[in-house]
Structure prediction request, 133 residues.
Amino acid sequence: MLYDELSAEENLRYFAGLYRSCSCLTPSEALLAVGLDPTLTRPVGQFSQGMRQRTSLARVLLPRPELLLLDEPFSNMDVASAGKMVTLLGQLRAANRTVVLTTHQRSLAEPLADYFLTMEAGQLISTTEVPAR
Prediction:
């Protein structure tokens, strides 16, 4: 959920205000973390889908969560943007954050995964542990 008429910085400033009791990242820090320029002033409604996805992830990162639940974080991203997202999620994982995500793009999740749960028609059909790296 982003407000299309606001810039990325304005969106994040609004959402950061909802976390008054925690030590949040600043909007600029969150945007830089996902590879976006915090000085970009155009409205989010004019962003590409990949930029919108990264802005949404920046919003999630504001309160410095220990657990991230991400639904299709690579959807509507070009290959380069998806690669940057994988790198960022890998950094979060290395910083002892837990990342749980759903994706139809298994190859993107492979560098991040400890386990794969495969579902078909709403049913769990397999669980695979990824060998230690």
About this structure: The first strand starts at residue 67 and ends at 71.
